[in-house]
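Provenance and format

Records in this collection were gathered into a single text stream. Each protein contributes a sequence line and a token line. The two records reproduced below are adjacent in the stream.
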Amino acid sequence: MAGLNLRFTDEELEALRERAAAEGRSMQAFAHDAVMSAINEHSRLFDEAAEHVLKVSEELNRRLA
């Protein structure tokens, strides 16, 4: 499995530590899940935008075909 090193300020690291502890999780697990959530949200937003563009331009595309 590949690894990744991230740099945080002291304040960011403390906030991460506190948040992970509040959820009873390791900092690594908390950070991993946060990154994966961000990736999934980006993909979802992209898919919604693409679907919207296709729907809005459906009539124009039909006439251009």
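Adjacent record:
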Amino acid sequence: MKISKNVIGALIFFIFSVSYGYHAYQIPLYPGEEYDVFTSQTMPKLYALLGILVSVLAIIMSILNDSRTTNDTEKTVDDFDKKSWLQVASLIGLMVYYGATLEQFGFILSTISFLIFGFLILGERSKKRLFLASVPVVIVFWAIMTQLLGIYLSPGDLWG
């Protein structure tokens, strides 16, 4: 039996969501907070539950789709080529880069560069799309987080 990439991806997401849910229960509550309706554990628990539901639905849909399809044109794990592995490794390296440069360059520059390089790794070559899909999104997200919600995002040591 061959397992498709969709099922493996959904299984990995399921394992991640279960692990996230387990750790959500480990978040300590402030004294008296255990009786509140909304606590520091509420949203992580909700995200874990949604992740589990989405991954289970993805597994079911993939299995049903695979059983209906008799055509072997879809790639399976055996057909996972070197280019795909290189993309996966590059994106993991890009995530490490993002985490390492967040304090140094700040949220805006690190996130813009992360998105641009991520799009390039995934195959997007249009410069107009690269910048329109990264710069305005990051600026608007930064404005919402810092100006509207009052959440601190690192400006970076480069500017200070």
